[in-house]
Amino acid sequence: MHLITKNVAQRFSQLANISLLLVSMVLAGFVLSAAVQAEEVKPMATDFSLKDASGQLHSLADYKGKPLILHFWATWCPYCKKLQPGLEKIRHDNQQSDLQVLAISFNEDDGANPAETLLARGIQFPTLVNGDKVAADYGVSGTPTTFFINRFGEVVWKTNISDPNDRKLVDATEYILAN
Asked: In terms of DSSP bridges, do strands 68-73 and 57-59 run parallel, antiparallel, or are they unpaired?
């Protein structure tokens, strides 16, 4: 009887060790998976060259090494009008940093004047005009669409948020400033 109890105890110990090993392997797999996801390759921002309303040429290369918020919008878009004060606040709150905020106007009605529209709204960041091709290159299908691009030129977040008070906008800004 003692031998049977000893064999059962040994088997139980072996099963416990195997179970512990399996659990460890599964947890290690989750940790490895999380590490791989954290190191996931981010898409690079697509290069562009566009003029602002005064005719000055801007390109993505002008912003190299700086965190950039790239905001696609149109003057007729009520959701853009709603979001822009939030982006302006982010720009203003981070004016001591190297954060850049740049708008690209596209899909405009005839006679629209995006630069004047932004100024009339109290928005101080520049806007580039005739950005239909750039919007297509970035896969923008609607307004507003805003990209957060880190110092390495990687797109870390694309959003259609229109709530100027959404905390995710500030979080994304803090992330591109830190990375």
From this structure: unpaired
Domain locations along the chain: 1-40, 49-178
pLDDT of residue 11: 57
Q: CATH second-level architecture of 49-178?
A: 3-Layer(aba) Sandwich (3.40)
User: Rounded distance, CA 56 to CA 62, Å?
Assistant: 12
Helix (H, G, I), strand (E, B) or coil at 103: strand
Are 48 and 61 in contact, with CB atoms under 8 Å apart?
A: no
The sign of the dihedral angle between the CA atoms of 3, 4, 7, 9 is negative
Is the backbone peptide bond immediately before 43 cis, with ω within 30 degrees of 0? no
pLDDT at 178: 94
Listed range (18-22, 47-51, 81-85, 93-97) with the worst mean pLDDT:
18-22
Structure tokens at 73: 């919008």
